[in-house]
Input
Amino acid sequence: MKLKKILVLAGAAVLLSGLPVQAGKISAEFGKKLFNSPGLGGSTNGKSCNSCHPGGAKLENAGANKQLTKAINRCITGQMAGKKIDGRNAEMKSLKMYIQQLG
Output
């Protein structure tokens, strides 16, 4: 019973943050939604990746960066005032996939 309640509350928190509910699928489409979401990484200032990189501007070569996960997390913790995203989860993998398609 408690686990079900926790899962429901976690789902509600994701919905309230403006992020799409993630169904475990990794896709560039999901990455694009995250890129445009002001709730990515728990951003506390309403910024999204798109705030500094409208339409993916200046990220055309970023997909080749071997440290892309670290670069994304630097933006999230810096400019967006959020928290790092685990590089192994569907959100980060989808976000990287979207950025890689920009090149």
